[in-house]
Input
Amino acid sequence: MKKVLIIEDEPSLVAILTEKITSEGFEVLKAGDGKEGLDKALLGHPDLILLDIIMPKMDGVTMLTKLREDEWGKKVPVVILTNLSDDDMVSKSIQNGVFDYLVKADWKIEDLIDIIKRKLGE
Amino acid sequence: MIDEPSKSLLSNLPDITHEPRFRVSVLANTEIVPNVIILSLKRPSAFDFTQGQYVWLILPKRSEQLGVIDRKAYSISSGVQSDTLDFLIHITNSEYVSELKMLKYGDEIDIIGPMGSAFIPSDKGAIMISGGTGIAPFLSILRSKTTGDFSLLAYFSRERPLHNKQELLDLSNKYGYKIFLSEDKPKDSDFDSFIKITGGKSIFISGPQGFVDFVASLLVKLGIKSEEMFFEANYPNNEENKRNRNMLIDLMGVYSDRIKPGKSEKEFSKIDDLFFQVSKQTSNHVILTDHNGIILFANNAAEQMTGYTFNEMMGQTARLWGGIMPISFYKKQFWFSLKNGIAVKKPVINRRRDGNLYTAITTITPILQGGIIIAYVATEENITTMREVDRAKTEFVSLASHQLRTPLTTIRWYSEMILNGDTGEINDKQKKFLEEINKGNQRMVDLVDALLNVSRIEMGTFVIEPVLTDLKELAKSVLDDLKPQIQKKSTIIKENYDGSIGKINIDPKMMRIVLLNLLSNAVKYTPEKGTVTVSIEKKDKDILIKVADTGYGIPLSSQPKIFTKLYRADNAREKDPDGNGLGLYIVKSVMDNSGGKVWFESQEGKGTTFYVTLPETGMKSKTGTKQLT
Output
């Protein structure tokens, strides 16, 4: 079963994403901040990471930078899922490798699932 | 006649929230020849400079003891790729300089900068003439492997021999610089070959006053025009300068003596000093300089704004607190107009004596006498607070919109899942209600996006990045996005695309915003079973996009205001209470900023046609920090 790691600090969004992604037949790992997310990513080697940007302890851009320093972490697909659409941090994260970048409020959860499936080659 | 500032007054200025001040450690301090030291500092990683620039050196301990920041400006002599910042310093009797001489490995020193230079390395190259430590900015230019045809004539006295002869010769071999070194006084024959082959090139002269005077007089005799010569700290005391100075003194009459620093205010109490009092007491910064920019007078507000006393400013140039914008800025924005006798008004960032930056609208007016510029009057109006307020506004909008989007996402996703039946069957009424929740939510999402775009437009921070794009494919994909609305209203869509139009250089994100707004408006404000026609054709040297509908039309009284922010025509408000009045404002701003045009024709009850033109060559690119979404 393919694993998706959700790194997001908003509990209501984590809950609904978990519900939806699980119902689509994927295993879900969860982390509430960038630091926990990095630990879980390097330990659990998920097949895809959904990453929020503004989080406590460690923000998404820092997490992504550190992730890309890891041999395995260089290649794992990351979908940035944020409600920031204009931050300098985002342009910085673009330099950290290829990823999809979605503004949460602009997307249906159904469309997000399509992207996850496509990324996972299903 | 005045050269007015551009519309985007503030957006082109660099960010001044972070003070570019660095504490660095001394790597080496070597006396290379008597009374000349090379001070070598560790270059901070974030410190970028271009060749020829200079920095302020501040001795932290000395400033602490004195209670004021004591500093001097020095040209950077290392190349732009170097890991160190090197300064060539001539030791004088000044206490400050003697303390510089005492610095040793590991000591700390503050640097502020970098700042521009009068020495402009251009692709065309230049002839650089230096005396003594005046070579410092030129070393930086040569060591940076500047492209172009550069020549250096460096003069050193027998007492102070040239220490880096070999390096200069190596650089000359490596990059093809033409180098002439001499331990004698400059003489006519030194310049012969240089002037001949490099005719028309700018000549930069740097060194002690006596040297500058002497070289300038030699060059004038050789037929070099004064406008081809550039000086930094010292201007030659030649005939032309003397004549202009005398004309100015004549013009100023009694004031030329009275305005000197230290004169008591009481001396100016007579009625004929009224205008002098006006300039002295006005709340804006006012300075008067001679034709070389040497300050002759500074008023009270200038002292307050820059933090320098008139005494400190006297005899210096405004580069004491200026010079931190890119070199090309001063050249293009100021000197080109000023030299032609045209006054200039521009926003500029300057640095106070205490190191803090401020933004000022600077106006410089040349004073002409018999067709010759003999002086400049410069005024500055501090607009830093205005910029801060503007910034706070944008940050607020950005933050607020981010905070708003999170709960909006929650509402969106939860209601979507209930609607999709993920949580079990729902009845028709529940479905209808949830759809209303969804609709309201979508409206909020659109509003937040539009507000963000408006704030970026108003700050001028949005970017236009043209890439080759197929306009007709873009229009088709926008129509695809609008399918639900089109189907709901059974709108007939007609598409006319001129097949001969290939890909053109446009920013697809921007153009998408434009088309989406125009097409969704057309569908929204056209009754059921109406027709919306989109066409793309060539017109002269432009690409013309037409979006025509058979809708309600824009009432004549509303037509002049239709592109105004938040404005909505009465009939539009009636037909669709959900609109936010931002769409056409955004369309207009995008087109205005990209070299295009937008206009419309409309008749109430018959329909509206919007026209958008783009140059065949595509959109103008615009640099900024943010993209519109």
Observations:
- Residues 132 and 202 of chain B are 21 Å apart (CA to CA).
- The interface with chain A takes residues 398, 402, 405-406, 408-410, 412-414, 416-417, 420, 422, 445, 448-449, 452, 456, 625-627, 629 of chain B (CB under 8 Å).
- The radius of gyration of chain B is 32 Å.
- Chain B has a mean pLDDT of 84.
